[in-house]
Amino acid sequence: MDEVGRGPLAGPVVAAAVVFPPGTKPLRGLDDSKRLTAAARAEIAVAIRARALAIGVGAASVHEIDRLNIRRASILAMRRALDRLRCTPAYVLVDGLPCPELGVPHTAIIDGDARCQSIAAASVIAKTVRDRLMQLLALRHPGYLWERNKGYSTTAHLAALDAHGLTAHHRRSFQPVTQLVLL
What we know:
Layout: E1 2-4, E2 13-19, H1 38-51, E3 54-60, H2 62-68, H3 70-83, E4 92-95, E5 106-109, H4 112-115, H5 117-140, H6 146-149, H7 155-164, H8 177-182
Parallel strand pairs: 4-5
Antiparallel strand pairs: 1-2, 2-3
Helix pairs in contact: 1-5, 2-3
């Protein structure tokens, strides 16, 4: 299990859980989603979907991020991803730090998206889902260039915030968005 989108100024945090059959051979090209190009992620996502026994995707909205904080919202997205699996895993491998709030037996693996096939697969699925969502939001809010920056704090995104102000998809609890809310 892994999540993506903890750092952006806009958009949800998205988590995915991927269950492979026991003995699944390593997928060629599978790596941490941050190390793959968008084209490579799209290609490997097809292979993941073909081999996985189950895939669950969950998200936490901008409003939930602002209300709960990003860590709690990430855990909420992970729980939603687990709830959307067709099966109930007895044990979960999670990228990063332990999450007792997750409510399932798990092992947290630092840099798990670079060290564990199921976590890397979850990273790829979560990133492709979130990136597609940000591309769709970019159609409604073209001035922010979310199709390119995916809501992250780029120079172009910050300039768009100055020029156009906030949208409902901006995280008001994140700097520098907080400063704009106070103005």
